Amino acid sequence: MLIFLVPITTIGGQEDGTRGIRGTSLNDIPTNVIRRIYGKQNSAVRREIHAIEESSTGYWRTGIRGDPDFEIEYENHPFALSQKRRKETHRNLNENFEFKPLRIKFATDALEAQRRNGNYDDKVDFIINNILPRMGKFWSSALSVIPIESNLIIQSNELANGVFCGDSEFTRVPDSHLTTGVEDADLVLYVSGQPSTRFCAPRTLAVAVACNFDQFDRPIAGAINFCLDQVILDDDGSAHPAVVDDNVDVAIHEAAHVLGMSSNSFRYFWDHDTGEPRTSRGFKESTVECVDGKKRTMFLPDQNTLRFEVGANGQRHAAIVTNTVKTVVRNQFDCQTLSGAQLENQPTGTDSCTGDHWDERLFYPEALSGVISPSTNILSPLTLALLEDSGWYKANFTMSSVSPWGHGVGCDFVDQPCLVTDDSNKLVVPDYGRGFFCTKANGRGCSPSHHFKMGCTVVDYSIFSGNKIPVEEFQYFPGEPELGGPEQADYCPLYSSPYKNDVHDLDCRNSDNGNGLGIFSESYSENSMCFETNSGESRCYEAKCIKDEFSMEVNIRGEHHTCSKDFQELSVKVSDTGLLPITITCPRLSSACPDMFCPANCAGRGICNYTAIVNGTTRPKCTCFNESDSSAGCAETRPLDGRYLDDSSELIDDIEDTYFDPLIAVFIDDPSTWNNASWAWASGLFMLFLLIILCICSSCIPARRGRKRIPRSDD
Ligand SMILES: [Zn+2]
Predict the structure, then answer these.
(1) Nearest 10 degrees: CA dihedral of 379, 385, 386, 391?
(2) Is the peptide bond before 282 cis (omega within 30 degrees of 0)?
(3) Which of 46, 335, 345, 510 is spaced 20 to 30 Å from 198 by Cα?
(4) What is the pLDDT of residues 698-708, one digit of tens each?
(5) What is the whole-number distance in angstroms between the Cα of residue 207 and the centre of ligand 1?
(6) H/E stretch holding 661
(7) Which residues contact 476 (CB under 8 A, 6 or more apart)?
(8) Could you tell me the distance, in angstroms and rounded to a whole number, from the CA of residue 62 to the centre of ligand 1?
(9) Distance of CA 406 to CAs 15, 378, 495, 538, 596, Å?
């Protein structure tokens, strides 16, 4: 619900003398990367948003509308039809209704007003011209709705004080929206830039809340407030493309809270099969033990939507258990016994019972988990599944990307501890955690997406910002209970520390990073990925996922090496002479090439069979619930991006020589393996050798005795 910038703190050695030696200061973080995390610093902001949802209108709390006659006009809505025919036969309402891309209109009057209140012209322009259009386009492509037939009219009795969307500090809804309404819109987002401390903690970037709903409870209006002081632009008002991307990601995250990803929205969900609310109205209060162990009396969704569970380690959490979500999360981990997808179990707002985000430990790179990774932010099929299960939308799963995190690893990834001790009480990463978790504070690995080099995050909680030591079930380091990874990830150490000042300097896809000495022949390009190596660092090389061969090809100096198994070790020469052979560890294939394994997690419309045999070999494949289902995702029609090739025929070895390799070969290799350049170097060296001999010899020959004797005067 809000955005928060935070340092990733590590202990142990740091490259480049940057930061992070036990007790990093908040001031030391690079400012050009947005990260968000829930923490006590912004729990007050979060409490404000919850208070708005709980109390701005009675409707939020009770589910009983102020005006029972209120109706948004739809030509043909499945839920309207189900209301009419409820007493007739049960029917599947999934067919023949015309869902169309969600039309989002932005009302930016309140944001524009901030131009006058400070030097915010550039930032207001940046949000209006760069951020909002991309965010709107994303959600329009990802979600479809039954379109509103006439103008979208805002109901004043759901607004704060009858006029404000969400809060009096956000936007005062124009009178015309209450009377004539907004044309061609299915959702109005009121965008403001109020810097008030109620909504802008020192590192909060934005907050969002829904403020109007149609008769089927779909949000039709919401507020999104940007904290302009946290928008960091260059002097000329522009921003690095990566910074723009970060801000767009934040806006997409915030809009998702308005669209339905909010603990206060889950009880409003409708069942798209029966055409009825999933939780009956008006809501009844119940007393429940929340994820923090405290008992609260509150309005909760029905158990068909959300359930409280206790994990293997005794930790209580809430899970979304609707059908599409359940199918997607089972396919994600290849764990068909999961009951649903876990919400965050670190209650970060003081009054939060279930959390508003996916759990960090299980869904770390997800765009709708609580913490944004500095490198990887993936809107996965899970979030689209949740929004589809709200009953309000049809999701276009091709707009999502399968998360590499725990993908296809099995139930152990979900149930078992992230780190374990071996027979000699040594801390190790278990097989199911390999590539995701780490044990050493200065260990070097790769980001979840395999696009960035990353350091292992281990925090000493005895000195970090006064934080308390992890509770017993989250202590992994024998004899060192104060150590652990990020709190939200259940203190599991993971590769989330950028060890350079700017995370983009660690991006394998950024060709500007390839200007160094290059003794490991690394390649920084659009198609490069990060590989763990034994060279003390992870390294960047070009790589492609080959669909037909079900393998990955790594290109090192023009020569292709095949990764056909998870964690296969490749001994590769990073120079032509073999002077520098290093071992490259292949990534987990389901993590580096996630779309080769049941794209879009079968779009929640079937089970991913990870052991399916296709043409005699094992190839994970979706088994659709409906055999004639040809929808993108389940029927594997998803177009694959540039990381993938259908087969390896397009790969051509183009072995590169470095200028000095043939020279080194002269000293190292047998002449039978020399190439022409080596022979040229050898000839040149021989000539040089002769020249030197000549010089030495000539200096030894005595000077000729032909010098005339100069007569002395007294001769
Ligand atoms: Zn959020």
Answers:
(1) 130
(2) yes
(3) 345
(4) 877 665 554 44
(5) 8
(6) helix 661-668
(7) 417, 418, 419, 420, 427, 483, 484, 491, 492, 493
(8) 23
(9) 28, 14, 14, 20, 15
How many residues are present in the chain?
A: 715
Q: Which residues are paired to 507 by β-bridges?
A: 452
Specify whether the CB–CB gap between 228 and 120 falls below 8 A. Answer: yes
Domains of the chain: 44-271 (3.10.170.20), 279-411 (3.90.132.10)
pLDDT band at 87 (very low <50, low <70, confident <90, very high): low
H or E element that contains 104:
strand 104-107
Ligand 1 centroid vs 52 CA: distance in angstroms?
15
Q: Could you tell me whether strands 644-645 and 538-546 are parallel, antiparallel, or unpaired per DSSP bridges?
A: parallel
Residue 283 Cα, ligand 1 centroid: separation in angstroms? 25
The first and second tokens of residue 92, run together, are 């599947």
State which H helix or E strand residue 225 sits in: strand 219-226
Dmax over Cα atoms in the chain, in whole Å?
145
Gap between the Cα atoms of 410 and 400, Å rounded: 22
CA of 246 to the centre of ligand 1 (A): 14
For residue 319, the surrounding DSSP H or E stretch is: strand 316-320
Closest CA to 66 of 148, 162, 152: 162
Distinct helix (H) and strand (E) counts, the chain: 15, 34
For the stretch 627-660, pLDDT in tens is: 888 777 777 655 667 788 888 777 777 666 555 6
Ligand 1: distance of its center to the CA of 115 in Å?
26
Residue 715: both structure tokens together? 């001769």
Write out the two tokens for 39.
């923490």
The answer, yes or no, to whether residue 362 has pLDDT greater than 60, is: yes
Q: DSSP string covering 377-391, please?
A: -B--HHHHHHHHHTT
Q: What is the distance in A from the centroid of ligand 1 to the CA of 270?
A: 22
Token pair of 289 as six digits: 């033990």
DSSP letters, 197-249, are: TTT--TT--EEEEEEEE-TT--EEEEEEEE-GGG----TTS---HHHHHHHHH
In eight-state DSSP terms, residue 454 is E
Q: CA-to-CA distance for 598 and 633, rounded, in angstroms? A: 8
pLDDT, tens digit, 9 for 90 and up, residues 97-139: 889 999 999 999 999 999 987 679 999 999 999 999 999 999 9
For residues 22-34, average pLDDT: 33
Q: For residue 286, with 0-12 CB atoms within 10 Å meaning exposed, 13-18 middle and 19 or more buried, which class applies?
A: exposed
Distances, alpha carbon 712 to alpha carbons 705, 708, 709, in Å? 19, 12, 9
Would you state the structure tokens that stand for residue 680, as one six-digit string? 């040229």
Spatial contact of 418 and 457, defined as CB atoms under 8 Å apart: no
Angle among Cα 172, 170, 42 to the nearest 5 degrees reads 165
